[in-house]
Amino acid sequence: MAVIEIDTLTVERGRVPVIVDLSLGVEAGTVTGLLGPSGSGKSTLMRAIVGVQLVTSGTVKVLGAPAGSATLRRRVGYVTQAPAVYLDLTVAENLRYFARVLGASPRTVSAALQTVDLVGYERRLAGTLSGGQLSRVSLATALLGNPEVLVLDEPTVGLDPVLRRDLWAAFRRLAEHGTTILVSSHVMDEADHCDRLLLLRDGQLLADDTPAGLRARTGKASLDEAFLSLVEATA
Amino acid sequence: MNVYVTMATAERVLRQLRRDPRTLALVLLVPPLLLTLFRYVFDGSQMTFDRIGGPLVGIFPFTMMFVVTSIAMLRERTSGTLERLMTTPLAKLDLLLGYALAFAAVAVAQAGIACGVAFALLGLHVQGSVVVVIGLAVMNAVLGMATGLFTSAFARSEFQAVQFLPAVVFPQLLLCGLLAPRVHMAHVLYIASFAFPLTWAYDALSHAVAGTGSAKIVRDSAILGGVIVAALALGATTLRRRTP
Ligand SMILES: Nc1ncnc2c1ncn2[C@@H]1O[C@H](COP(=O)(O)OP(=O)(O)O)[C@@H](O)[C@H]1O
Ligand SMILES: [Mg+2]
User: Fold this and answer.
1) Where is the ABC transporter domain (chain A) (predicted)?
2) What is the distance in angstroms between the CA of the first residue and the CA of the last residue of chain B?
């Protein structure tokens, strides 16, 4: 069953078309990578999926309901590209606030901190954290209350390789427990962690395939080169 | 709307304020300092100090809360936390009332300190009820907060937000009757002054200070209550779940 269904979606921002007539589906319990260069429309597409983006035409459905419906607000977790964290609160205060807003039990706070490897940082003021730590606090707020769908906008940017590996392992564990994960990135080197790849360029879908399928189709061993050859084929 | 989420938001806003002791100190200590200044500027005329100082106690919270709230809400918009909150079950009213509750609590403290200093140390003389003056001060704080929430939607930066103080508040201060009786103003200004909330705030305060016209205080308070509800409703319309 498709958890996210997008049908002929067009989004204009400042009169410029940013997403153009795009249709796709994301299957339940998968890790789907939304890949594309900076400015290709990844954040805009994710905003449309969580229902904070005004769309020009087309439909976006999540878990069978129109994106942004009140019923979805507890079931969909969203991590914005820039960390959405109160810098003048501690890590624990940030998480406790979002837990109360989401109606999640306070116990999920420590579980979320464990997942993002920030145990021991509870009392640190968010404003004193590094960029990578801050984006992990932001990620932790989205994990509260175990949402069925996670929409993560470049959650691994700026993190060191060990942390990135651990986070991808965490995404995999969540997916194995049935969570549907859509994660964006502008670098291809993480694409192999995904079950499925959506390649976005100038607001259009270049490919919707598995990493293996993409390699087979283009005859390239590296996904970077596969992406480039797809770009050239459409140019 | 959810009382639990509203309270969580109020608590969060108060925590943020507590983390910023300098702002808190400015909010709580500037009014009594300014009142002290007034007291000695009008050193030779206790009557003038009584006439202006009393209402001022109730008008400070309006200007302070206006600035503090518009900047706090602007930060919420620009930091991405508002966008994030809009994807959660939080109702817009939860956010607005959370801010209102938190800042009303600060306003009580602010008005209490200002009144304490004015009455006990500066010898400010009020014919009417001190409690009514404090009550009106809190109401004005909430009014300032509601207006600040609304105007913050039109500011793109903190520079702009701060400039709304002279643009939105100063004209009201000039026209409300504090500096000169409204009936002495140019007729156009006199008519215009009816449209500004601070006019009604000042009217109520001046009656409370003089100990006259409790019916007028009730009428003015009702008008202010209406303006607060309207400003909060307008503020709610500027909190969009979907943005371009
Ligand atoms: N608030 C905005 N107003 C107008 N245009 C925008 C806005 N935000 C992004 N854009 C434009 O939309 C396009 C896609 O942006 P975005 O979705 O952020 O891409 P990505 O996340 O892939 O980097 C870019 O050309 C960008 O300049
Ligand atoms: Mg982006």
Assistant:
1) 4-227
2) 25
Nearest to A73 among B16, B19, B88 (CB): B88
Residue A182 within any structural domain of the chain? no
Q: What is the ipTM of this complex?
A: 0.91
Chains A and B: how many Cβ contacts under 8 Å? 77
Domain that holds residue A127: 75-145
pLDDT digits (tens, 9 = 90+) for B109-160: 888 898 889 888 998 888 888 888 888 988 998 899 889 988 988 888 989 9
Longest Cα–Cα distance of chain A, Å, equals: 52
- Residue A1 pLDDT more than 80? no
Contact A93 B12 (CB under 8 A): yes
Could you report how far apart the first and last alpha carbons of chain A are, in Å? 34
Sheet of A57-62, strand order: A16-27, A2-13, A57-62, A65-66
Nearest to A78 by CA among A177, A10, A4, A176: A4
Residue A183 lies in a domain: no
Segment among A26-35, A134-143, A219-228, B191-200 with least mean pLDDT: A219-228
Q: What pLDDT, in 10s, does the model give residues A163-189?
A: 899 899 999 999 999 999 999 998 888
| Max Cα distance, chain B (Å) | 59
- Judge whether A179 and A29 are in contact, CB under 8 Å: yes
Which of A9, A43, A52, A109 to probe by mutation at the B interface, max B CB count within 10 Å? A52
pLDDT in tens, B7-54: 999 999 999 999 999 989 998 999 899 999 989 998 888 888 888 888
Q: Please state the domain count of chain A.
A: 1
Which of A115, A97, A90 lies closest to A179 in space, CA to CA? A115
Question: Is residue A104 included in any domain, yes or no?
Answer: yes
